[in-house]
Amino acid sequence: MKNTAPKLTGMIVLAAMFGLLSVGVSSVVFELEQGSIALVGSGVFALVFVVLALGWREPQDGPNRPTK
Hints:
Elements: H1 7-28, H2 34-55
């Protein structure tokens, strides 16, 4: 039985979390305007998604224990 979510779903969720975090930071700390905030958020989302797509690996099997 496969107990993991699809790889693409995990990449989208993580990239969206970082994108939303960057939107919050750019609006509160840097006080950017609405258009700039959307541009920063989508840029961070795209960058994180590409990095995850390049480095994400399939789950590996755990350690093999001998059965009795």
